[in-house]
Specification:
3-stranded antiparallel sheet, 6-stranded mixed sheet, 364 residues, alpha+beta, homodimer, DNA-binding, 12 helices, 42% helix
DNA sequence: GCTGGCACTCTCTATCTTCGAGTGCTAATT
DNA sequence: AATTAGCACTCGAAGATAGAGAGTGCCAGC
């Protein structure tokens, strides 16, 4: 059943007002809004209807209405206006992102921080790297007891490890090993590194004194490094929200979010700029059933997808937050995939127009 | 003026009881304790004395006593019993630490998590690396447009960077550059890398097409990388404490702790195993004036000192927490400096006896 | 179908009362 | 002189009561 245009306008007014004030909204408040030109009595009729339809509810008989998750959903899907970021906001984001080109690890933490401070909600930043292969081995001979393993990955990242030995090796041996590993260990996935493979390489190079297994061990470590990382920042923001004045409630949520496992089990949106909204009971996790989660995904270069998001009460400024997240995610994509290939362009994020076009998925 | 033995026993009883219950302690409660064999009236006399001396205070006239920071200080310095960790506890710590030998970055975050869960307080983990120099350059030629810079630091860590060029270079050039950098850029601190030095190197190698500045730039980045990192975990623990039931108070503290700058400005204890306690107003930061901070320092191998700690109300179980922090810090030291040199031993933390000897500094 | 009016409901706040834990003081005891 | 029992007193915490105000549903009239 389609609901009338007027009902929609009224619902939108209720949600807007409640998002702003966190107080149940009464018929009078709505009647006073511009664009609504009927009396409060009429509004009351409509509100009663909307309640019957499941979009609103009353905390108690003689209070105003607050939106139900279903109400928020309709709002997010159809009613809310596209939020335009101000020029200051976009510039602040651009500036912050440009400043923070460092190792991915720090970038992650920093962008989380940025998101938190920009939205005033607890923010999370995740990466879920795709599997990759080793494209090249180098062994750098330092001295008789020391060498460095340098591994170039198909994702164009470099990993290294310094190895000290309790015995000495010759430079020739190191070179021989490098050649061997380049021949046998490149281009293969982590599950192809079998004990069989290792022992066959070990046989090919005699007198390795266990070096093969050290290097192979590093290769496995690098390949299997499911370095999905998760950062949670701005948790203090939660405490300012009226719905989390109850320390126990705040504690429950933060306790849940504090566990990386939980964060990593969040659903990963697909395409860059896609902003997804999960409202209250739409969340799978029991602990999130009366909170909302907004997630935006970005392309982190080497086959990796990243995720930024915020967590808050169902009463969130969805339009605003979604726009901001979308913009940040786009910026990250540009930064990281720009850095992927060319040495130029890296480190400069050109001002995107804030189209905020991120399709607001329906989250179910 | 030295206070009597009995006063000390009574003060200790008050602190112990208050740490446990978070409620003001009355004379009757103390009189019932074993080891105290005087009547509550006598206790009241003594309590009044202790209050006059500044060790105790009353929230209001008709309530029990709670310790002042001065009272806690005396308790920590002289009265509290050495807390013995149970075998389970030490084994849990050992097991957790042994499991977490990964990159330092993750280790840091993980040990923070461990500390938080072990103590039930918000935990912090910091590193403050010492300055170091570059001991060796290697440039790995990949193809005409690509090479890897590998830098071995005096601290025995390795840093690398993959460089893509918009033009092509010959392998010979790369080798020449490596030799040049090894000749001029090794063994010097970051402030010795002057533009003068760079341009003189640039002149020595003709036709470098800007490569020198790329490599020098990386060298500077690596040297100046004041990679002091700070992790804060277990913030949710704060909310369970009765003294932080007030969301505003919790918010203020968490807001302060959320800023890395603030964490990094904490005083750094010197020697490994040294546990330092800062009680209430002993903290320099205004925001910590009614909280306590317990810090333990460890030797993180390559010239670096690490720090773990917890933050909580002045009412903390100092003995217990100090013992735990000391034990973890010792474990970290063993792990990290063990890993520094030999390839063996790395990854096995032998069971330390929990002497908990960490001198409890007087924090002023 | 919309509106003004009206009785009703229910929470929120302020004020008051009561209760009890804990104190300080005093007088008696060791 | 130190300790103890007894007692009046203080003050916050918790519960009870009353009033105010916001908002509702419904009805009669336009």
């Amino acid at each position: 059943m389609e609901i009338s245009e007027r009902k929609k306008r009224i619902l939108a007014a209720v949600v807007d007002s409640y998002i702003e004030s966190a107080e149940p909204v009464g018929s009078k408040t709505i009647a006073e809004k511009p664009g609504i030109d009927v009396s409060s009595a009429t509004i009351r009729h409509e509100l009663a209807e909307l309640e019957r339809l499941g979009y609103l509810e009353q905390p108690h008989t003689s209070a105003g209405r607050i939106p139900t998750p279903q109400g928020y959903r309709l709002y997010v899907n159809e009613l809310m206006e596209q939020h335009k970021l101000t020029l200051e906001e976009t510039e602040q984001i651009n500036r912050s992102l440009n400043m923070k080109i460092q190792q991915l690890d720090h970038l992650m933490a920093d962008v989380g921080q940025l998101t938190a401070s920009l939205t005033s909600y607890p923010a999370l930043a995740l990466t879920a790297p795709a599997k990759c292969t080793i494209s090249r081995f180098d062994l750098i001979y330092i001295d008789a007891n020391t060498f460095i393993i340098v591994v170039l990955l198909s994702s164009n990242t470099v990993k290294n490890k310094l190895v000290h030995l309790p015995f000495s090796v010759e430079q020739g041996m190191i070179q021989k090993l490098a050649a061997l590993f380049n021949a046998h260990f490149t281009g293969i996935a982590d599950d192809e590194v079998t004990p069989l493979l290792i022992s066959s390489v070990e046989r090919a190079a005699l007198d390795t004194m266990g070096l093969v297994s050290i290097i192979a061990g590093f290769a496995i470590e690098v390949l299997s490094e499911t370095a999905s990382s998760a950062y949670l920042t701005g948790t203090q923001n939660l405490l300012q929200l009226p719905e989390f004045r109850d320390p126990d409630k705040a504690h429950r949520l933060l306790n849940y979010l504090g566990d990386k496992e939980h964060l990593l089990s969040l659903p990963l949106p697909q395409s860059t700029g896609d902003v997804q909204v999960f409202i209250g009971p739409e969340n799978v996790a029991e602990e999130l059933k009366d909170s909302s989660v907004i997630l935006a995904s970005y392309d982190a270069g080497d086959n990796t997808r990243g995720l930024i998001g915020v967590v808050g009460p169902t009463r969130m400024d969805y339009a605003n937050i979604a726009a901001k997240l979308g913009y940040i995610a786009n910026g990250m994509s540009q930064l990281l995939s720009a850095g992927e290939k060319p040495p130029e362009g890296w480190g400069k994020l050109t001002l995107m127009q804030s189209n905020g076009e991120g399709s607001i998925g329906n989250g179910r």
